[in-house]
Amino acid sequence: MMKEQLFQQFSIKNVRFKNRFVMAPMTRNFSQNGVPHLDAAEYYSMRARGGVGLIITEGVEISHPSSSGYSGCPNLISDESKRAWEKVITSVHKEDTKIFCQLWHVGGIRKPGMYPDPNVPGFTPSGIVKKGKKVAHEMSLDEIEEMIEVYANDAKICEDLGFDGIEIHGAHGYLVDQFFWEVTNQRTDNYGGSLEKRINFAKDIISSSKKSTSENFIVGIRFSQWKQQDYGAKIANNIDELDKFISELSKSDPDFFHTSMRRFWEPEFESSNLNLSACVKQLSKLPVIAVGSVGLDKDFIKLYQGDHEAKIGDFDKLFNTFENDSFDMIAIGRALLSDPNLIEKLENSNFKDMVPFDKRYVEKYV
Ligand SMILES: Cc1cc2nc3c(=O)[nH]c(=O)nc-3n(C[C@H](O)[C@H](O)[C@H](O)COP(=O)(O)O)c2cc1C
Description:
eight-stranded parallel β-barrel
């Protein structure tokens, strides 16, 4: 594919994007009582005006008291929340940009004592959060079924509010990923054991969300090999396991895969030089979104390790990887926090005016 095609239209089913650039989901901790911040419409529409074709919202807590694990995250529960999201959606659509809601449950990252109900523990497949002993609540089969229904109801709420789609957060060691990962999933029922069975929770969430919404509403999933509990972890140790993972997940009919990488150009397995998104593209016909250190010289984990200043990096890597057909859409996180007009500047090759990233851009909202 030609580099210019990055700046041209792309579609997932009937949803058309003005280009292939995506704002990555980023938790901002600026919402009070689950209601998106007053400035949320401006925060998102600035990035839409600056050239982004698709926005994936910050993680939005699903409507279950166990989903929350950090302060200041939005949800879909109150009327006030819903009206605030409608405002965000309308402002983003005015810029001819589409918007997906990222549905999130933090799983065992939640600790007792947290908002909204201090008595509700972290919900997990097997009570395990990282290698070691049980520290959280092991979900019963009834609780799993209830959770799947909560996702499906929230998907419907998202469609009614006007979102163009949803992304199930299945990455980074949170609930859905805790089911994927054998270390945190030691169940012996239909939701644990073999790789196929560990995928069933995500599959049921996707198929129920597709059932509760209309044909044109987009339902996709983000996943990662790495976990916040273990950066070296892998769900798939080789291309055959990845093949199994992707073909099983595909049975639930997702509309896209979002492969979360820390550095999007790095090979995934020793056997080839393909990155994770390129491997998935070889294994599936579905659209694939890639992410990870686009335009910056450091990956985002450094932000949480105190080394937060990232300079504008090499965009040739992005163009070359795209020309090698390694992804369909590319998501950008930090570089869009520091520079809402990054895509416009990239299109005009205006590299000198791009704003480098540091933690001050996380500490302020708009
Ligand atoms: C402040 C911040 C908050 C994030 N919150 C989320 C989130 O809510 N959901 C998610 O899937 N990823 C989240 N991420 C990960 C980003 O979506 C993205 O994958 C990561 O930052 C790598 O992209 P980048 O190198 O372009 O920043 C967050 C990252 C940052 C920097």
